[in-house]
């Protein structure tokens, strides 16, 4: 069983149409649950899912869109992630 992970890929897009194309490409591989565009220029694609092949998605984006840079791969925060903070506050009291 693989843990849920979050991948951030910066894609240099030449036009707004490329954003929707990038989302369609990122959703394609197995294990992908959600894709969101982040950043000031909406040029960072954030992908969340189980067992994601980040290198494969980056390769596909480079092939179909253009320059793409894999920025980070890490564990996704659990839903309701405030639980750990509350536990720490309770210990301090």
Give the terminus-to-terminus CA distance: 37 Å
Order of helices and strands: EHEEHEH
Major sheet: size, sense and barrel closure? 4 strands, antiparallel
According to DSSP, the number of beta strands is: 4
Number of helices: 3
Taking strands numbered 1, 2, ... along the chain, how are they ordered across the largest sheet?
A: 2-3-1-4
Report the principal-axis shape.
Answer: globular
Rg, please?
Answer: 16 Å
Mean pLDDT: 82
Poorly predicted tracts of residues:
83-87
Helix content: 25-40%
Content of β-strand: 25-35%
Indicate the structural class: alpha+beta
Organism: Acer negundo
Protein name: HMA domain-containing protein
InterPro entries: HIPP46, HMA_dom
GO molecular function: metal ion binding
Summarize the structure.
The chain has helices at residues 17-27, 54-64, 83-92, and strands at residues 4-11, 32-38, 44-50, 68-75. The protein is of the alpha+beta class and 93 residues long. It is globular.
